[in-house]
Specification:
The chain has 200 residues and is mainly α. The protein is 70% helix and 2% strand. It has six helices and two strands, in the order E-E-H-H-H-H-H-H. Belongs to the mitochondrial carrier (TC 2.A.29) family.
């Protein structure tokens, strides 16, 4: 088997496709992500401090009214980077982890192998994407940052490198389980459709 290929499509093409689809998807979804981040920030306000938004729909209208329509795409740059990079990291690391596991005596192309590979893909995706995720969330929740670089530098200077990995375990739990379900489902669908193993 040629290790540069996954199925019948070159690995680099799948990585490029993951980068592109991740970027396009977040351009469309950024307003929803922004509202989610702002509403989560509201939940951290001290007791008795009134929130800015009455709910999700009110948040959309308030943001547009007070900050303009373009504000719904606040943090778009780091969000595109995050989504594109995490998509590509998941795909590339899943394939590599699975191939490594299959070289261990006793391991076969089984559901357990897919679970381990999915968890590996989630781990690598969080390691690579967590700093971008932190910057993205901070820019969406705080308009005082000038740009992505300013947010990164200020966070690093004020809180240190580990600030970029806050929430690592919950994030891994989310992405790890997501990758297990996604790749296990894709593997099974591929086998059903083609009648053969995902990897030759």
């Amino acid at each position: 088997m040629n290790r540069d290929f996954v199925g019948d499509i070159p690995l680099y093409q799948k990585i490029l496709a993951a980068l592109l689809t991740g970027a396009v998807a977040i351009v469309i979804a950024n307003p929803t992500d922004l509202v989610k981040v702002r509403l989560q920030a509201e939940g951290k306000l001290p007791a008795g401090v009134p929130g800015r938004y009455a709910g999700a729909l009110d948040a959309y209208f308030t943001i547009v009214r007070q900050e303009g329509l373009g504000a719904l795409w606040t943090g778009l740059g780091p969000n595109i980077a995050r989504n594109a990079i995490i998509n590509a990291a998941e795909l590339a690391s899943y394939d590599q982890v699975k191939q490594t596991i299959l070289q261990i005596p006793g391991f076969t192309d089984s559901a357990f192998t897919h679970v381990l590979a999915g968890l590996g893909a989630g781990f690598f995706a969080v390691c690579i994407g967590s700093p971008i995720d932190v910057v993205k969330s901070r820019m969406m929740g705080d308009s005082s940052y000038k740009n992505t670089v300013d947010c990164f530098i200020r966070t690093l200077k004020n809180e240190g490198i580990f600030a970029f990995y806050k929430g690592f375990l919950p994030n891994f739990g989310r992405l790890g389980s997501w990758n297990v379900v996604m790749f296990l489902t894709l593997e099974q669908v591929k086998k059903i459709v083609t009648g053969q193993a995902y990897y030759d």
